[in-house]
Amino acid sequence: MSPRPKSLDLGLLTLRLGVGGFMLYGHGWGKLQKLLDGGSSKFPDPLGIGPELSFACAALGESVAAIAIMVGLLSRLSTAALGFTMAVAGLVVHAGDPFGDREKALLYLMGCAVLLLTGPGKFTLQRKLFKEPSNPKLRWLLS
Predict the structure, then answer these.
(1) pTM assigned to the model
(2) Contacts of residue 29, Cβ cutoff 8 Å, sequence gap at least 6
(3) What does the angle CA 108 – CA 30 – CA 85 come to, to the nearest 5 degrees?
(4) CA dihedral for 31, 33, 39, 42, sign (positive or negative)
């Protein structure tokens, strides 16, 4: 088995930085600040858990998970959280809206899907800080 080309890991790093960085800058940071200032009762409640909890989940997914994706920390779990948030936004909250209004959420969802399937690549904080678990299922989940 030949080693993976460095360009693959650089591509995954670029995707992580793009998806996480754009999400944090364009969506997550403002929501996180609003959450820390008391949340939002006017936020949609697509899952029936209440607008405050829905807002908190979206704010954390779009900020904390975005940061974790960027630095490569629990990348698959973080990517799943952000991907779920984008799936709800693009397929539930904005389901009746024109495609152009849903497109951004769906593009983020596709980036998350790629990272979930491929993993974060070699250039991650987690790889630098922690030893990889020997259990292959745990290794996959925590990569």
Answers:
(1) 0.88
(2) 63
(3) 35
(4) negative
Helix 51-71 × helix 29-36 angle, to 10°: 130
pLDDT (0 to 100) of residue 136: 76
Give the per-residue pLDDT at 42.
85
Query: What's the confidence (pLDDT) of residue 2?
Result: 63
**CA dihedral for 16, 21, 22, 26, sign (positive or negative):** positive
User: 131 with 107: CB under 8 angstroms?
Assistant: no
Integer Rg of the chain from CA: 16
Q: Name residue, tokens 């820390």.
A: 36
Residues 6+ apart with CB under 8 A from 6: none
Whole-number average pLDDT of the chain: 91
Tell the residue number behind the tokens 């299922």, with chain if given: 137
Instruction: Specify the residue for token string 């250039």.
Output: 123
In the predicted structure, residue 81 carries a pLDDT above the cut 70:
yes
For the chain, what are the domain ranges? Answer: 8-142
- Give 35's contacts (C-beta < 8 A, 6+ positions apart): 55, 56, 59, 60
